[in-house]
Amino acid sequence: MISTRGRYALRVMIDLAEHSGDGYIPMKDVASRQGISLKYLERILPVLAKNNYIQGIQGKGGGYKLTKPSEEYRVGDILRLTEGDLAPVACLHGGENTCERADKCKTVKMWNEYYDLTNKFFDGITLADLMK
User: Fold this and answer.
1) Measured between alpha carbons, how far is 96 from 41 in angstroms, rounded to an integer?
2) Residue 44 exposed, middle or buried by CB count within 10 Å (0-12, 13-18, 19+)
3) pTM (2 d.p.)
4) Which of 23, 24, 60, 70 could form an S-S bond across to 17 if both were Cys, CB 3.0 to 4.6 Å?
5) For residue 130, which of 15, 46, 53 has the smallest C-alpha distance?
6) Structure confidence by residue, pLDDT tens digits, 12-51
């Protein structure tokens, strides 16, 4: 399941993409438009900035903006950044099956296929697609 953190990160990124022609966007504007508290955004933005998804400046005229065009951001990358691995079961976290029962597990193939489908689905969607 995708948490609030991942969903809000997507909303912030879409908002910044939709207003990309406006220069740096103050977070209070994004918070107001998206109905997200500034306090919560202050926990998400550093992760996005540290990984060069957004860049920010402080002071008058400051705010945040995307570092690339919206077509270059995949939803899967944003979710993995904010959520961690999208593995449906603990034994697949990190992309490798670490379960000692993997060779006998009747469900491991199913979980691997579901994991692959999930990643392919989210990696096939960009911010530009969500803006349409």
Assistant:
1) 32
2) buried
3) 0.90
4) 70
5) 15
6) 999 999 999 889 999 999 999 999 999 999 999 999 999 9
